[in-house]
Structure formats: structure tokens, C-alpha cells
């Protein structure tokens, strides 16, 4: 198969993360394209962000759901407001790296171990459950949908509340359906025709693709999922082939190389 016909990999993460993963895959010799299926925008309510920063000193930890949460929250930091001594909780290495870039002390970051089976809230909780006490406060920095409703799973918030911990929520950004033109639609259909693998890091991205391409059949499409929940979502949507891959960067890249 010539290079122009190579099916390659479609990376569906938000733009910045997608471009990063395309670069990593290309460096590993894998043909990859970015096709972001989630758009990220700053939260429109900047007053709430300012108020959240006022509450930071009262918290024992801030849990960041993603690298986007880190970037948008730190961008909204008012002058003179610091998070000195406050721990940061993250579920994966990408978010951890974003905190490091923004100057968060490494010894104040809690995360699942690098060889964890999954990078999710359950894995994080296994690391931090004994470090927080009833009556203490934890802030969850997360995104919202286009209507401003907090998006994502509530498992950790509910677990904290059941443990007697007060949960504060800061919406730092908005996750939106991308606006597609002819180029993206052609890119999608060509990828399907060539049998490209679609790399999904969230169920939301998979749902957005179905919304953007209504009436499209997925029974011949091939997907790679980095978590069992995402794999189940894709199978429920009728994807013809769904493989669940280990989420660790090196293992994921090696798995993809072996497929394409």
C-alpha cells in the first residue's frame, strides 16, 4: 500500500492535544492526522473563576480533570493569588505535565502511578483516599458543556462527599461541538474509506462524531479506545472493530505501530 493510501490514525482529542499526539505518532513512523472532535473555549463566567481562586487557600487539594483544566485555571489566576502548599490531584500524565509547565511543585502533585492499569478517578482515589479528612475541602476544576453544565463523570465528587469531604466545583472551560466545514467532512469520509484507525480518549468525542456525521454507518469503522468505558460506548454506537489499548504513552504508541 502506498503512503498516500495508508489508512493511518485519526487523532480525535482537542486541537492542542491532538497535534501533540500526531507529532508523537509521526516520530514513531505512524501516519497520523488530527481531527479534533471537542472544541475547548474559556469559561464565560470569569467572576466565578476569580471567586474560585479566593477559595483555593481553604482547600487541601485541587483536582484537575485534564490539561485543559490546568491551563484555563492558571490563565485565570488573579494577581497575588497563589496556591502555595495546596496539593494538586490528577488522573493522568498529560495533566501532570501541564501542572509542571505551570510551575506547580512536583512534590505537591498526586496521581496514579505511571504503570497504573488505568488513568481515571478510581486509580487516583486509591492514591489519595487516606490523605483527606471529613470536613476538609477539595476543589474539582473541570469543564462544562455549551450550556454551562459541568461535564464529565461525578464519581470522584460523590466519593468525596460520601467520605464527608466538602466538594467545591470550578468550571474553568467549556467543551463544545466543533464547527465543521467541507474539509473536515471530506477528511472523515476518506478516513472511513481507507480503513483508518480512530483514536479516542473520551466517549464525548465519539458521541460528537456521530452528531457531526448523522446517518453515517460505523459498522465498517475501526476504533482504538484508551479506557473500557470508551470502548463500551463505541461498541454501543455500532463501530465494527473496537480495540482497547493500554493508556500509557509508550505502550499506546507501540500498540498503534503494530496495527498500522
Describe what this molecule looks like in 3D:
It is a single chain. The protein has 260 residues and is α/β, with parallel strands linked by helices. It has 2 domains: 3-38 and 179-259, Rossmann fold, CATH 3.40.50.10090; 41-176, Rossmann fold. Helix content is 38%, strand content 19%. It is built from 10 helices and 11 strands. Strands 3-8-7-4-5-6 form a 6-stranded mixed β-sheet. Strands 2-1-9-10-11 form a 5-stranded parallel β-sheet, with helices on both faces. Helix 1 links the parallel strand 1 (9-11) and strand 2. Helix 3 runs parallel beside helix 4 (93-101). It is globular and about 55 Å long. The mean pLDDT is 91.
Q: Calculate the terminal CA-CA distance, rounded to whole Å.
A: 11 Å
- Rounded radius of gyration (Å): 19 Å
Helical content stands at 25-40%
Q: What is the arithmetic mean of pLDDT?
A: 91
Instruction: Give the overall shape.
Output: globular
Q: Tell me the strand order in the biggest sheet.
A: 3-8-7-4-5-6
Summing up helix and strand content along with how strands pair, one would put the structural category as alpha/beta
Number of strands: 11
Instruction: State the CATH topology of the largest domain.
Output: Rossmann fold
Secondary-structure element sequence? Answer: EHEEHEHEHEHEHEHEHEHEH
Largest sheet: 6 strands, mixed
Please give the CATH architecture of the largest domain.
3-Layer(aba) Sandwich
Produce the secondary structure layout:
Layout: E1 9-11, H1 15-27, E2 32-34, E3 39-42, H2 46-55, E4 61-64, H3 67-75, E5 87-89, H4 93-101, E6 109-110, H5 121-128, E7 137-144, H6 155-162, E8 166-176, H7 182-194, E9 197-200, H8 203-212, E10 222-225, H9 228-236, E11 241-244, H10 249-259
Parallel strand pairs: 1-2, 1-9, 4-5, 4-7, 5-6, 7-8, 9-10, 10-11
Antiparallel strand pairs: 3-8
Helix pairs in contact: 3-4
Amino acid at each position: 500500500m502506498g503512503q498516500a493510501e495508508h489508512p493511518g490514525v485519526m487523532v480525535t482529542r482537542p486541537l492542542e492535544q491532538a497535534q501533540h499526539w500526531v507529532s508523537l505518532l509521526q516520530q514513531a513512523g505512524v501516519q497520523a492526522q488530527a481531527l479534533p472532535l471537542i472544541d475547548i473555549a474559556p469559561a464565560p463566567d470569569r467572576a466565578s473563576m476569580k471567586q474560585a481562586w479566593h477559595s483555593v487557600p481553604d482547600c487541601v487539594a485541587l483536582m484537575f480533570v485534564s490539561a485543559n483544566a490546568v491551563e484555563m485555571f492558571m490563565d485565570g489566576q488573579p494577581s497575588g493569588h497563589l496556591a502555595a502548599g495546596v496539593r494538586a490531584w490528577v488522573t493522568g500524565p498529560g495533566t501532570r505535565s501541564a501542572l509542571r509547565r505551570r510551575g506547580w511543585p512536583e512534590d505537591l502533585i498526586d496521581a496514579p502511578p505511571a504503570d497504573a492499569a488505568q488513568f481515571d478517578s478510581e486509580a487516583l482515589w486509591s492514591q489519595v483516599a487516606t490523605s483527606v479528612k471529613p470536613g476538609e475541602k477539595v476543589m474539582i476544576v473541570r469543564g462544562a458543556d455549551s450550556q454551562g453544565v459541568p461535564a464529565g463523570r461525578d464519581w470522584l465528587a460523590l466519593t468525596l462527599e460520601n467520605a464527608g469531604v466538602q466538594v467545591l466545583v470550578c468550571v474553568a472551560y467549556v467543551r463544545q461541538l466543533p464547527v465543521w466545514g467541507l474539509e473536515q467532512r471530506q477528511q472523515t469520509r476518506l478516513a472511513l474509506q481507507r480503513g483508518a484507525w480512530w483514536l479516542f480518549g473520551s466517549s464525548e468525542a465519539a458521541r460528537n462524531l456521530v452528531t457531526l456525521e448523522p446517518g453515517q454507518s460505523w459498522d465498517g469503522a475501526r476504533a482504538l479506545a484508551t479506557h473500557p468505558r470508551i470502548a463500551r460506548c463505541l461498541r454501543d454506537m455500532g463501530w465494527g472493530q473496537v480495540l482497547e489499548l493500554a493508556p500509557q504513552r509508550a505502550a499506546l504508541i507501540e500498540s498503534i505501530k503494530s496495527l498500522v
